[in-house]
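Work Package 3 (structural annotation) set out to generate three-dimensional models for the target panel prioritized at the project kickoff. During this period the team completed the workflow that converts sequence records into discrete structure tokens, so that structures can be stored uniformly alongside our sequence database. As a representative example, we reproduce one entry of 444 residues exactly as it appears in the project archive.
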Amino acid sequence: MASEIEKGTKYIPEMTQSEIDDLNKSMKTSSLKVIEDNIEKMKKSWKDRPQVMEYFDEISNLFGKRQEEIKQQKATGKKVIGYSCIFAPIEMILAADAIPVRVGSGWYDSAKLGDRIMPVEVCPVIRSTVGAKMVNLSPFLELSDAIVMPLTCDGRTKLSEMLADHKPIWRMNPPRVKDDPHTLSMWKQEIMVIKEKIEKLTGNKIDRKNLKTAIEKMQQATKAFRRLQELRKGNPVINGRDAMLVNQTSLWDDIERWTQKVNELCDELEKRLEQKEYSTYPDTPRVMLTGTPMIWPDSWKVPNLIEESNPQGVVVVDEQCSGDRILYDPVGVDEWTMSDMIDAIGERYLMACTCPCFTSEHGNEDRINWIIDRIKEYKVDGVIYYVVRGCILYAMEYQRIKNVLDKMNIPVYYLDTEYTREDVGQMKTRVEAFLEMLEARMDI
């Protein structure tokens, strides 16, 4: 309960409606331009881009078709449940016939607005999300009836307070130590609390039948996702940016329709693989991305630079919660009892996660092992370790990752940046130098 002295919102300052409307209009216009430019760049780099990619282009418009669909479903009484990171149990939301949407912000302009109430040292993803709320910029945040907010870092902890003035916030406390004997039981309790809140909001009980259906639906999505990932292990039949876009649209699209479209894309790519029709030259340096999540649309600047540089690179895999980690691990159920399904959901969302918020007796070794395995599977030539300033956990794990990659003789480049478009020129020089080095190593 707020103190008697606090009136109005606790953090976000009051703004005039005209200022909110003006800023919303200018930021939305800017965002639509960035979306359009990014898609044009992807089309230009991949001349024979499959027609089915037009579907993902359309869904990538945050202010377009998908927003309208959700509005219409919400008007019929459906509930929309936002979530800030991939710890949120999507299967529970689907089982209650609600719509899950991720609400983390990838807008640079709104991060500058967030600077009004937060120091610039704070993670810009957090500042951007707050700034988006200040001018009602994010369609999915605005449409959400409640938001699941796992407290994975200090920034998200305070973000939950700031957004609580505007939306019901359901906080989750992921255990930070994975190998403690009580870890899974603690996490299961968190899952059960969220289950009860979802049921109360939607008025729909999550039972064995609808939870099984939801798990199977997400398993099909994972199967399609893994099919696409398998195609990225060989000569490039899809550019990294396009695969990243496909993966990221799963965060707000209808998941059954998304699964169908991914399978259509894979059908086409498998044909091209047989006919040796590649999206770029087979000897293009193969790059892995890791670090801070790259959230559509503004954060596409790094993959744009990699795949438009001279020499060019191709992103073949990433280790990001905005990318390959979204759907990589399915919920594995042995017995389709209610208890077993909830246990399986708990294990999937906790034990499989490689977020740097974790530690254990051997530190965050799961992330190390995940990166090592993917470097081998995807024949990675070099790793770009991307960190936005203020993203402390990813910055702190860099040295350990570098030590491991040095022993594997895999070059790694620490690419730190602000949440801005203004440093693209400087970053281009850095990325090209790294790719030149990778190309030179391949020639030897």
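The beta strands are 80-83, 99-102, 146-150, 169-172, 286-291, 314-319, 382-388, 412-417.
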